[in-house]
Design a protein that fits this description.
Blueprint (H helix, E strand, L loop, with lengths): L3 H8 L24 E11 L10 H18 L3 E11 L4 H18 L2 E9 L3 E11 L13 E6 L4 H9 L9 H10 L5 H6 L6 E4 L4 H12 L2 E5 L8 H8 L6 E6 L3 H11 L3 E8 L6 E4 L28
Parallel strand pairs: 2-3, 7-10
Antiparallel strand pairs: 1-4, 2-4, 5-8, 5-9, 6-8, 7-9
The protein binds adenosine-5'-diphosphate and magnesium ion (MG).
Length: about 325
């Protein structure tokens, strides 16, 4: 049985590209780029709450880092460094090797140095703290949305929730949709390039981890505004509609942009080869409220807004964002 230190040395220690001192000392040393602010965020994944016990370890490693990278994207920041705290019930080396491979695949994809962490025995649980950089004063906050702004969303919200429903036997998706939805669930693609490009363009941004309506709701609260959305989904509460409106785990970005800059957003979609869909507009109030209409202008009764760990009890075997 390998020791804690052997595990760290074998699976979580690798060369760094932009770090003064990485794994192996009591603390890491980083030198932030002059003129930048550090953006710091932490996200924890707990077995049974955030992922199913039989999740592929490589996918889980990717997702553990990717959900944190997504927070950097939502701030308009470039992810740079991360620490990783792990609790595992036992030292299954094949599992740990695959998990580490997934973590480093994501780290490589986004140019992140893993600079430290903690490794301990306990119920399976992963916690990443990520450090990003953004030019001083340029971070995208939740609080900047103004009446008259358009509301946009990237990608195809709802796919991750549909992928989960498929894996749980609650629906049967057919190819190629099935593969897309399962990939969205297991290998989310944080929208870092989009977040960086939205600097100076978007007035507010958030990543969709808890559901489109729930996360847009956070922008509306922070900005003290309301929104009117026109949604190209059927008004009846189907699984597709509810996945789109309240499914979590997509890690797409919802953002607001002044209406005069519409063409700039359209050009960005082409440049990034990423669908960017205008779904509504910001109104002055009442704070936090969302009016939903379908393409014919009929009012749509919204489903439950999204996932809240302490408000709704998930059915047995469901996973939360
Ligand atoms: P300490 O006891 O001083 O906190 P540890 O023995 O916990 O140090 O960790 C030794 C070194 O390994 C530290 O640099 C720590 O940041 C790093 N480390 C521990 N676990 C991990 C991990 N899962 N991934 C990356 N680095 C880790
Ligand atoms: Mg320690």
């Amino acid at each position: 049985m390998p020791s804690e230190f052997e595990l760290i040395a074998r699976y979580f220690t690798r060369g760094t590209t932009h770090t003064t001192l990485g794994v192996g000392d009591d603390g890491a040393l980083i030198a932030p780029t002059p003129g930048c602010e550090l953006v710091i965020s932490t996200d924890m994944l707990v077995e049974g709450t955030h992922f199913l016990p039989d999740t592929d370890p490589q996918d889980l490693g990717w997702k553990t880092l990717a959900v944190n990278v997504s927070d950097m994207a939502a701030m308009g920041a470039r992810p740079r460094w991360a620490t990783l705290a792990i609790a595992l019930p036992h030292a299954d080396e094949a599992w740990i090797a695959a998990f580490a491979q997934g973590v480093f695949a994501c780290a490589d994809e986004f140019g992140i140095d893993l600079i430290g962490g903690d490794t301990t025995r306990g119920p399976r649980n992963f916690c990443v703290t990520i450090f990003g950089e953004v030019a001083s004063g340029k971070a995208l906050r939740r609080s900047g949305a103004r009446a008259g702004d358009d509301v946009w969303v990237s990608g195809k919200p709802g796919q991750a929730a549909l992928g989960l429903a498929h894996l749980q036997g609650r629906t049967a998706l057919s190819e190629p949709h099935r593969a897309d939805c399962i990939a969205a669930l297991q290998r989310p693609q944080p929208r870092v390039a989009l977040g960086l490009a939205l600097q100076g363009l978007a007035t507010a941004a958030i990543d969709v981890s808890d559901g489109l309506l729930a996360d847009l709701g956070h922008i509306l609260e922070a900005s003290a505004v309301s929104a009117q959305l026109t949604i190209a989904v059927p008004p009846a509460p189907t699984l597709e509609r509810d996945a789109y409106l309240s499914g979590g785990d997509d890690y797409e970005l919802v953002f607001t942009v002044p209406a005069q800059a519409r063409t700039a957003v359209t050009a960005l979609a082409t440049k990034l080869a990423l669908p960017l869909t205008r779904i509504g507009s910001i109104l002055a109030g009442p704070r936090g409220s969302i009016e939903l209409r379908d393409l014919e202008g009929r009012i749509v009764e919204p489903p439950h807004r999204g996932y809240d760990h302490f408000m709704s009890l998930p059915e047995a075997g469901t996973v939360a964002p």
